[in-house]
Amino acid sequence: MHDLPPLARFGGLLAIDLRDVTSDPSALDAKGFWAVVADFEGRLLCARFGDVRNVPPQAPAPGAWRGPAAADWTSSLDRAAYTAGVRRIRRHIAAGEVYQANLCRVLTAPLPDPAAADVDALSAVLALGNPAPYAGTVRLPAHGVEVATASPELFLRRTGRTVESGPIKGTGRSPEDLLEKDHAENVMIVDLVRNDLGRVCATGSVTVPALCAIESHPGLVHLVSTVRGELAPGAGWPELFAAAFPPGSVTGAPKSSALRIIGELETAPRGPYCGGIGWVDADRGVGGLAVGIRTFWIDRAPAGHGSGGAVLRFGTGAGITWGSDPEREWDETELKAARLLAVASGVQQPTGRAAR
Questions:
Q1: Which of 190, 294, 306, 307 has the smallest number of CB atoms closer than 10 Å to its CB?
Q2: Which one-letter DSSP state was computed for residue 29?
Q3: Which of 164, 169, 266, 329 is labelled catalytic?
Q4: Domains of the chain and CATH, by start
Q5: Residue 306: is its pLDDT beyond 70?
């Protein structure tokens, strides 16, 4: 639906009247209200809107969103390839190259009516079927960005000079499912995030107010920690992005080694999945970016689908450590995807396997 006007929606905020689009993060320290989408691969889009208003939660209009058929989802890595990737990462860990690495796959399905597909309508459906603390929409078709996220994870929150991150590591159906491996993985990533923020924060200001807290979300639980610091003089959004991107919880530790391994094993770009999605109010000096997990995006010109085709994409993944069991990690990616794919496909309750 290319003629729909640009908009961004985060919680109770609706932003319309697009004024400016840039890839320069220094704009976020200047003036105005910005929607931000940073792809995992490094593409940054910042869109300034002139009209920002508080609105009540949107109710999905009947029939406004037509999602893919539940059986039409395909995966960039099938079960055999994914479990083989887990075993490969374990060999890298045994060789001392990395402690932990996230292995992800991108799920794709054709849209039944591409011309009528609107990510804002999808966001309304997600808000009803899978409410999330960092849910959001960025609809900028002319710039190739149509994203709907139901993210549970805080990448960066900034209030004045205070910055905070909320890395998630450890996922299960219930607290009883969480293993010692999950706690160890969370602590590893907290150390990584502390190091990232320490590069741009005042010496001694980085703290961990919460470590491995259990949070409940629809259909699953997470271990969540909080890392906080005070920006050093002269540091702003460009320095924050340079220090912390891509998010540590969806890369691994050490980050540079994990990124190299991810590049070797994953067969599809992550795009906005595992990137950063959110908003910045430069006038007030506040902002919040989610890690782009539980995130859908429309690709209007997918390879192999012709000029008139359009697909919906969604990413899922898991953190791999020495203690990882390949089949269990595959199952975790299925668990993370099942409810969201069911909601997006119009299935009230997820049943059976969520993705091939």
A1: 307
A2: G
A3: 169
A4: 7-61+77-344 (3.60.120.10)
A5: no
